[in-house]
Structures are given as C-alpha cells and as structure tokens.
Design a protein that fits this description.
Six copies of one chain form a homohexamer. Chain A is an alpha/beta fold and 131 residues long. Chain A contains five helices and five strands. The first copy, chain A, has helices at 15-28, 38-47, 67-77, 94-97, 111-122; strands at residues 7-11, 31-35, 54-58, 83-87, 103-106. Chain A has a five-stranded parallel sheet with strand order 2-1-3-4-5, with helices on both faces. In chain A, α1 (15-28) links the parallel β1 and β2 (31-35). In chain A, α1 crosses α5 and α2 runs parallel beside α3. The termini of chain A are far apart. The model of chain A has no long low-confidence stretch (mean pLDDT 91).
Chain lengths: 131, 131, 131, 131, 131, 131
C-alpha cells in the first residue's frame, strides 16, 4: 500500500530525534511529515490538504506552544485523533496535561515502542486484557 | 465502615445538582464534601487535613477556574487522583480538556452512573473486557 | 434529574423478567420503555421521537428477530449505541453473535449487574485496569 | 430471580466486616456464603455442591492460608473465577501477590465499591474506555 | 522457533493484498496460509489438520460468504479465536457486524499495524492503560 | 537513542531460546541482559547498578526459583515493573500464578509478539478498545 497514504504529523525540533522518528516510522510503513513547531503543524492539519492519521509530538518545542497544548488543539478539531507524546523531562506531567486515550513515550524509547504505539491507536478495536 | 473515611471533594455551584450528588454519594457509602469553587476545593486538598479519595466536579463553575483546570491542578498534586467530571454543555470538550483515565458524566445522568464511576476509579485492578 | 431523560429501550417478552428489569432500572434512575419484540423496538428507535440512551434486550424474543439481530440493526443506525444482552440459554453465542463493546448478562443475574452494565456503557471514559 | 442462584464465597474472619459484606451483597441481589477460613472455603468450592460465582476474600485470615494463597488455589480449579480481595494493611502487595484480572478493595471501602466490583467481574464483556 | 508453528488463516481474494499480507506476516515470524474464499478457509479450520492461531480476513470476498460471516462461523467453532478484519469500504460496519474483541484494519494500513494486531490477540494478558 | 539505555532482564536457561530472545529484543532497539537463574537476576536488579526497564522470564528455570516466583519478588521491589513470561508447558498456570498486568507468551511465539508485549508495557497510557 502506498506510503503517502498514512501521513503522520511529527512535531520535533531536535534534528537527531526527528531523524530517528522519521526513519522508524518510514520503515514501519508510515509517512511522517515533520514540522518544527506546533503552530506550523496545526496550520497543516487545519488546511485539510492532507488527511493526517496521527500526531507524534515532543513536549518541549520551538514556538510558544508546548506539545501538551498542541495535542489539545488537535483534539478540538478531531476528538478521536491519535496522539503520541515523546518526552524526557516532562513525562510525569502526562497525568495532568495529557489528553484521554493518548500514549506517552518516555525517552529514551526503542523504535519498536513508537511503532507499537502508532499502530495501536490506528487500529479499530485494539482489544484489552483477556484471560 | 465509617462514612467519613471516604471523603470525596465535590465542586458544584448549582444547589440542585449539589444536593442530588451529595444524596447519591452519601447513600452509596461515600462522604461528599462540597466546595462551590475550584479554588476553594484546591485549598482544601492541599491543606492535607483530610485525605480525599476522589474529585467530582462540574465544568462550568463559580470562580475563575473551570472543572477542566481544577482537575489538572489536582493531578499535579497526585497523578493518580480519581477524577469524575459532570457536565451538560461541555461534554464534547472531554477529548481535548479531560485528563487521562477520567470519567465524564453527561447530564442528565442517573445516580447509578455516578456511583459506578466513583467505585470503578477507587477500586484497584478494575478489569477490562473478558470473553 | 428527571427520570424521563434517560430512556432505555427494553426488549423482553417474559412478563416476569420485564417487571424485574423495569423495577431495577427505574430504581437506579433510568426510564425503561418496554417493547415485546425487536421489530417494534426498532420502529421506536428509528422514529426519533425519543432519544434513547441504551438497549437492554433478551435474545430469544417474540417476533422473527432475535436480540442478536436487533442489536446489529441498532448499531447500523448508531455505531456507538450501548448494547446489553440478557440470556440464559444463548450466552455462549456472544463471542460469535454479539456486537463489539457490548455486555452480556447471563441469567440469573443480580439487579446490581444490570445497573453496573448500563452505567458503564453510558459513562464517557469508563477506564480500564490500573495498578 | 432467586437469590440463591448467585452464591458468592465470602472468606472473612472479622464478624463486623463479615456482616457488612453479607448485608451489602444480599441487598445487591447476590447470595453470600461465609467461611471463616480459606481452607473451609476451598473445601466448599471443590465439593461441587454449589456452583459459586465469585470469591470475596480478606487477606489476613484465620487458618494457615492467606487470601492471596486462597485465590491462587481457586484459580487452579477455575482459571476465570472472579476474585475480589479486601484488605487494609496488605493492599500494596496486590501487584506481587494478586492474580491477573482481580480487583482489590482497600479498606475502608464503600458498599457501592464492592457491588460494582462483583458485578463487573460477573458480566461478560464489561467494556473498557471509549471516547 | 519454527515458522510453521504459528499458522494464520488468511482470506483475501485480491492478489496484491494477499502478497502484501503474506510478506508482512512471514517477516514477523508467522506462517500465513491463504484461502481465496471464506468457505475454503472454514473447511481448512474444521478439518483440524492444522492448529490455526488466528484469522486475518478481508470483508468483501469471493464466494457467497463475507468476512463478517466468516468470522462468526469461526467463533462458533472457537469462541476465543483471534479475528482481524481488513477492509477499505466496509470499515464503518464493524460496530454492527464485527465480533467482540476483534480488530479491524482500515485500508490502507501499514504492515506494522497488522503485525501489532495479530501479536496483541495472540498474547495472553495484553494489558490496558496504566498511569 | 543508545541501546544500553533500555536494559531488559532476560531469565532463560535454554541457549536456543536465549539467543532467539536476545536477537529479537536487540533488533527492536532494546538491550537484553541475560541471567540463567532467577536468583542471579534478582541480585542484579537489587544491586541498583543498572536501571532495568522490564523482565522477560521463562517459567521453568535453573535454580530453585520458578519464573512465577521471580516475578513476584521483582514486583515486591517495584510494583509496576513490566513482566513478560514465556512458557510452553506452564501457560495454563498464568491465571493462578501470574502477577496482575503481566503478559504471557505461549511457546512457540513469533518475534513480533515479544516485541509488541515489551513495547506495550513500557509505553505510558497504552490505550484500550475504541469504536
């Protein structure tokens, strides 16, 4: 299936992390599209030109908007939009700043963790515990 | 078991709703303690005098703080504090304004819904689907 | 809050069970509205006159339509409509005939089980396991 | 539906707690049957005379067997048997001593918490979060 | 571990999709075995010659049986059989036609989504949210 | 991100399985550190020299301690420590011997199952079903 059919918005200002995430998502079959700030990413989303499937965002970003705020704005547009946060320092704020049904990846994290997180949120059903 | 051992902070400015919630929680075996504003409720929580077990809050409140903001402040103090929102008009904002692992009761709701919500959040484990 | 604001469609052809369910739901703060067949219940739903909040249905019903089929039709109209099945004999068919995210109550069941089931499905969030 | 059709094994050696739990479960429509020790409760279960539906057990018990051990033995007999623990002092041991998909009620707990816990574990499906 | 120990039934009539799914599952360590129709797949399952571990099926299939019906028949044989649907056009029917605890992958989907879905359903426990 | 930042304790006494698991985890971006017995693994954990992120353990092990017991000891140290069991013969004991919120992989299992399991347990949030 064509890669450009699963565009994921990536908001990350550190080049090293951006490359890592882009490579990981591309290899898994997604199409990451990077923005260095939350403001630009929101503009992209709202333009409606591309039908993005998920948001992967760092918390501490360039621009005035944090990843926490970015995700809230995205959810105002689409209440079920998949949200994945990445952070090193701000992980303990998820319980107060995260949106419901989001995933947080605490740095450092393995490529597999990111891929599993995005996949889970994109799948319909995604069942829970079973015995 | 003594009722005053399960104090629940209740933030509600409409007298009718406050009575309804107090009666419901009391009958279920909890001990609701009402504050008309988020600011006062936070002060109570932070005082540490009473070990509250959960927060039940309306969204549109007296005072400058909404229920959304109230819950975030509470979670900054205790990341696992049980949070239950009640709202009529603001229900569709939960996906962007709610905290993770919270419950929202959309007005009108039955007493049983409130009791089930508080009970689920207080129980450890609280399993998921099974087949 | 007014009882008639939480109408629940009840599809049950045995008078004893119907009374039991009606009493249980009413006492919990819901407003059960009974139909003896799936066909009539669907007509009620589709009329749009009342904004029903959930379906509680037996499996073996009067009329040609089983509870399994009834629930599928309801979900075609509203994909997120809360569905609760009640059955004695057909319980083991849920894994093949039930709709996703539904609850099945195996007879005999306690009033509390029915109330908890309806409450869970009506609450937004309804979190899962925690440690 | 007849009360004796939903027998719940209750293992509790403190008379006050036993009365509280028996009253709560009976009022909710269950039929609690009390044993003062885990050993006796296991004998009852294994006799097969009564088809018990769930176990509600304290942790610190008369007899040599703790509630933790009791629950393991029960799960050896029936891997999906609903298990609810009650404890004041041993709550923090659940993560190492509890069985999967069990619920722990930390004393003091409200009657509603116990009823919700038993109901959830008896219902098939018992869905998880929704947005 | 030997690849032929994790046989997965694959029901897909489009050659391109079949190749994509076979390659993806094989690379992940599974052993996909393809049938072009639901009828043939059911015959394979019922023969008992191979102990299949999961079903991955398209919805619109050759033969009279849709993927929805296929999955129901499989669940009649084994109520806990893992079910993964793939579809482009029929995704919105999952809420009325899907079986409980199944996963639906909406085309286009990434290989990682399919692998995560199958893995989740095969793992015992597969926990839910945590804070 | 540096591989040695995600150390996973691996307790496995069969060389073939140990190699398989080490290769799988390494390729996924984790850093497996193998111990042949539960006793040695516990000593490593308790030393605090390395901040391990998860436990992957077989059930039948060298030394007196089984994987079941190993996991309980780990959870006494850290109640939220991610636990993944691997077993061929002892899978049906998970319901009585497993710890809450753990995952069991029944041999034979695909590499993808192991990677998904570890990733799920390391991610914060890790949401449940959605419709």
């Amino acid at each position: 299936m064509a890669l450009d059919e699963l565009p994921i918005i990536l908001v990350e200002d550190e080049a090293v992390i951006q490359d890592f995430v882009e490579d990981t998502l591309t290899e898994a079959g997604f199409h990451p599209m990077a923005s260095p700030t939350g403001e630009e990413a929101l503009t992209l989303l709202q333009s409606g030109v591309v039908r993005y499937r998920a948001l992967v965002t760092d918390i501490n970003l360039n621009g005035g908007m944090s990843g926490w705020e970015m995700a809230r704005r995205v959810r105002e547009i689409d209440p079920s939009f998949p949200v994945i946060y990445m952070t090193g320092a701000a992980a303990d704020q998820w319980a107060s700043q995260g949106v419901p049904n989001s995933i947080l990846l605490e740095k450092p994290f393995a490529p597999a963790q990111l891929v599993t997180a995005v996949s889970q949120l994109l799948n319909t059903g995604n069942p829970s515990p079973s015995m």
